[in-house]
Design a protein that fits this description.
The structure is a single chain. By secondary structure, the chain is of the alpha+beta class. The chain folds into 2 domains: about 90 residues, SH3 type barrels, CATH 2.30.30; about 70 residues, no CATH class. Helix content is about 45%, strand content about 10%. A 5-stranded antiparallel β-sheet has the order 4-3-2-1-5. α5 runs antiparallel to α6. The longest helix has about 35 residues. It is rod-shaped.
């Protein structure tokens, strides 16, 4: 909270490209987030590109957020006017591109390398879920069909085993696909 620690946060705590939110009150932050475009240590201000404007903010009212958790900001470009202090900031702290459409290159610059590692991990988790859980689920449904159970009876039997970690949609669509594919062969 900025009220507890006045003047404790300086503009040096931020980097160009950081995702931030602003304190509205002592306990509430904005629902949207912005990107730090310039850092001005001389005036102890940070320029932030919000979805609606590019404004100069006090670092004490900003909080860094992780874009992997809270999502990427709606705008990734600097749409503010240039000034002498901004040009000095660009020389010392770098800058993000002005008035360009977000491209693959810009996203690669602003999204940390951890995002690609997170994507790889998500793919591994989805693959292991699909190969281990869904395969067993389909085998159980096939066994129910071979035993002569109706699709409703198969759902009740399979839901007891897989209802904790498979969604209702996955179970129903798997039952529908197995029963339709087997009936189509008859």
């Amino acid at each position: 909270m900025p009220a507890l620690y006045p003047s404790m946060v300086g503009p040096e705590a931020f980097k160009v490209g950081d995702c931030v939110r602003k304190f509205i009150t002592d306990w509430n932050v904005t629902p949207y987030q912005g990107v730090v475009t310039h850092i001005i240590p001389a005036t102890s201000k940070v320029w932030v590109q919000w979805p609606f404007a590019n404004t100069s903010e006090s670092p004490e009212t900003l909080i860094k957020v992780n874009p992997l958790v809270s999502g990427m900001p709606t705008t990734l470009v600097d749409r503010g006017y240039g000034s002498y202090e901004k040009s000095l900031s660009e020389q010392t702290h770098g800058s993000i591109p002005k008035r360009v459409t977000p491209s693959r290159d810009l996203k690669r610059i602003l999204v940390p390398k951890m995002a690609t590692e997170t994507n790889k991990m998500a793919i591994r988790i989805a693959h292991s879920f699909a190969t281990k859980v869904i395969d067993k689920l389909v085998d159980s449904i096939s066994t129910c069909q071979e035993d002569g159970l109706t699709d409703v009876q198969a759902y009740n039997k399979v839901f007891k085993d897989y209802g904790d970690f498979c969604s209702d949609y996955i179970i129903k669509s798997s039952i529908q696909r197995v029963y339709v594919s087997v009936e189509g062969k008859d």
